[in-house]
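--- STAGE predict ---
source: upstream dedup step, 1 unique chain passed
mode: sequence only
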Amino acid sequence: MRVRVLPFGVSKDWLGAAETTVELPEGASVADLLELVTARVAGRGDVLRGIAVSVNAEYATAGHLLREGDEVGLLPPVSGGGTTRPAKTLDEFMDRPTAIALTRERIDAEKLVAAAKRGEDGAVVVFDGIVRNNTRGRQTLHLDYEAYEEMALKQMKALAVEARERFGVRAVTLVHRLGRLRVGETSVLIVVASAHRGAAFEACRWVIDTLKKTVPIWKKETFVDGEVWADGEPFPEGLALEPEGSHER
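--- STAGE serialize ---
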């Protein structure tokens, strides 16, 4: 059977391709696929340590059995109401209790914060993540963000819905920028509206912390003296896989 393998972030550098088709025997699992991929990067098995794997845009375990035509994502640690569909433009955010988007437009934070406010709200808490001019002393020229977009939107929507349920807030807006960003531009904006400030603060902090660990978005940092894929935070327990041979040095 054939499956389509999509590497993201630094895994593209490891495999030397944006995507590839792999032949596997019937009944093969995610673990079997990872063993094959590890063999292809002989001597660099450690590069697959700590990755997560998705099958058809959903996180999958090592024992998940693959089928003909499956789309398998190799995901290194990430950098980064009702029947709501993703907004195509940022102007579509009005009147949505869970508003999410990936965009290549400039994020207008003031406009989105104003759109989130309602008369019943006692607090609006905002996280505005911006591109800084250095990382560990290296001068930053720009950042490039990429995502497994279908899966990222699913994860972002799930975060927004869970935040409303878990913390009892009225509305969550979550927008992430993709493409090239310059110093000072907004990369991610989270707006939480609630009757009470405590719930809004807690929900906002939980959303950004969880997004950085679970939503498949990666960034490449370009400095005056080179470029590198940013180290991601480890996946939560149960998502990261250890491919056979990944402890090679």
